[in-house]
Amino acid sequence: MMIQDEELRHLYQETSSARLQKLQMGLLQLEQGPHDPNALEDVRQELHGLKGDSYSVGAETIATVAQELEVAVKALGQQQVEFTLDISDCLYQGIYAIEQLMHETVTGDPSDMDVAQTVSSLKAAITAAISAPTAGESTAGDVAVQSSSFYISDDELREIYRTTSEGRLQSLGEGLYQLEQGLANADTLEVLRRETHSLKGDSRAVELDAVAALIQPLEDVIKEIQSQSIPFTEQVGRYLQAGLDMVTQLVYSATSGMPCGVDMDQALAQVTATGAILMAASVTPESGVSMVDTADNIPESGVEEIELAADGVDGAAEPTADLMAEPMAEPIADLMAEPIAEPPDIDIPEVTTPPGIGIIEDAELREIYRTTSEERLQRLEASLLHLEQHPKDDATLSTLLREAHSLKGDARSAG
């Protein structure tokens, strides 16, 4: 998909081309010194930046490839895998794929590459390379693999959860990137809070209580940031990113059946404990304690343990971004803020409640369903208005289809 805005397209082309050059130089440095921490960190930062840049312009497939490469580089930096020929090939193939996709994004010229096959093959190759035990490492039988207990057996419910979770995780990734870049505002924080809360509710609805429990401390920390009780520091960002990565892996396992080497008890303990330390940094203006000073005293080990746990998960676990719906062609936030007036001179028949429909008894589930349904209905209404002006907008049609499908799934999940 070509970036429509000319200025944005040129800016993305310039910055991403510079990042690609740095990545290629970084890979050459790694071939000479695979354990060079500076070279590894430079490559990781460029991949992370490219991922964020791509998300911000709607180039989700490029962001997905960058994410997979970042997983591999993190594993190298934490010495979970050796810089073998297989890893080197994966990195070079990924960079080549990004080049092809980037050309298509800025020129509109379709590439000959089978995008879905390329991304799938890259995921599989990175997964195989990272999952292979190194000398002295325990085998797969010693790892707490919980794919069977996580897998959602109902086909339709699994597909609904996969679709909605991918959308929420994408929104969370974009919001966290905005926070890291200092571009976030109150609306961004509210989106982060709402999406974590909804993802928690969605997980409980499909009986993934362990995933919901893992999301809870992340939501609590976001609430503290939102209320300005704690500042958003680098450590807080790393904590949220590592926790989000872990949730992403578990969601993938639940919807694909692929194993994930996460010890859930240990992961939950790490995320909860570190979250509690962050929450302990919460202060009131009357306390006289500097929020920045307090947050900077968070032990580094807690965040690092969570990052290790997240990176130790199956590298194939990031949902494929090209399965996600494309964003709408132009902003319609102003339309969503306004209720849609009913057409004049049309008699609307009175709507009667069909038998069997009643109130959702669980208070938390009821609130989650109310919030998510209102959001989906707003997006549906706004998209319909947009479609009236742009009837051939495929992105808007995709949004309508996705929201209607998700609303149906939410209703079934809530009973």
Structure characterization notes:
By secondary structure, the chain is an all-alpha fold. Helices cover 68% and strands 0% of the residues. The chain is built from 16 helices and no strands. It has helices spanning 6-32, 37-56, 60-77, 85-107, 115-131, 147-150, 155-180, 186-205, 209-226, 234-256, 264-280, 291-296, 300-311, 333-337, 363-389, 394-413. It is globular.
Oligomer: single chain
**Which shape, going by the Cα principal axes?**
globular
| Proportion of residues in extended strands | under 5%
Secondary-structure content class: mainly alpha
The SSE string, one letter per element, is HHHHHHHHHHHHHHHH
Unreliable spans are 134-148, 283-298, 313-356
Please count the helical segments.
Answer: 16
Mean pLDDT: 74
Major sheet, described briefly?
A: none
Task: For the record, give the distance between the C-alpha atoms at the N and C termini, rounded to a whole number.
Answer: 38 Å
How do the strands and helices of this protein lay out in sequence?
Elements: H1 6-32, H2 37-56, H3 60-77, H4 85-107, H5 115-131, H6 147-150, H7 155-180, H8 186-205, H9 209-226, H10 234-256, H11 264-280, H12 291-296, H13 300-311, H14 333-337, H15 363-389, H16 394-413
Task: Give the structure's gist in a few sentences.
The protein is mainly α and 415 residues long.
Protein traits:
single chain; about 425 residues; mainly alpha; globular
